[in-house]
Amino acid sequence: MKMRLNKFLAQSGLGSRRKCDELIQAGAIRVNDEVVTTPGISVDPETDQIYYHGETLNVSRHKIYIALNKPVGYLSTVQDDFGRKTVIDLIGLNERIFPVGRLDLNSEGLLLLTNDGEFCYRLTHPKFCINKVYRVYLSRPFDESDRRRMERGLKLDSGLSAPCTIKYVGSQRHVCDVMIHEGKKRQVRNMFKSLGYEVTRLIRLKFGNLELSDLKQGQWRYLTNIEINELKQLTQALDIE
């Protein structure tokens, strides 16, 4: 049965559909005897041979779902051209897995990794509105009027941010928990920066229904079947191809 090439690549464990589109456009994918550079074509996994840098790809049958407490100093990517440390270095599995979304180099906390491209697609596609909670430490107290402005949405270089929910942690207002469903690059930091605040520490505490809990920095664990099913159920109301 035919499927879109980027969906096949994601299901083979190469990364999210967006990442797979980038690989296609970069000329890294060959279908049969032809290098394909146009995203959106369809392939038949039963009859077509699909290659990534000469390696034959197949849909990953054994699905892996991991929760990691990412420390500062690790890139949320599979590999880095400059040899910097990535979150894959912390896992140490002989399996092809990739991060679900990202946490920037200086951020820490809950990060999911998988080889299930459809799972990644649904958890990161903005139309599914999966909430994430971040604990944010600021260099000065967060003003109440700025909190209300941020909750309504702010004009950023990347566009208007969606409404969010903010709760203070403690009485000094240097720390707050921010719940957003968008996943734009450095979004939480950029929201505070636009109002003149410096984020000194940022920790993701929650992704959908999954919480960081007592997982120590640098440690990881497999998700339970209950956790996997609950995450999948969050996106069942919509079916986006």
Architecture overview:
By secondary structure, this protein is an alpha+beta fold. It has 3 domains: 3-56, Roll (Structural Genomics Hypothetical 15.5 Kd Protein In mrcA-pckA Intergenic Region, Chain A), CATH 3.10.290.10; 65-126 and 214-233, 2-Layer Sandwich (Alpha-Beta Plaits); 131-207, 2-Layer Sandwich (Alpha-Beta Plaits), CATH 3.30.70. Helix content is 22%, strand content 27%. The protein is built from 7 helices and 17 strands. The strands form 4 sheets. Strands 7, 8, 9, 10, 13, 14, 15, 16 and 17 form a 9-stranded mixed β-sheet that branches. Strands 3-2-5-6 form a 4-stranded antiparallel β-sheet, with no helix packed on it. The protein has a two-stranded antiparallel sheet with strand order 1-4. A hairpin with a 2-residue loop joins strand 2 (29-31) and strand 3. The longest helix is centred in the N-terminal third of the chain and has 9 residues, at 17-25. The protein is elongated. The mean pLDDT is 89.
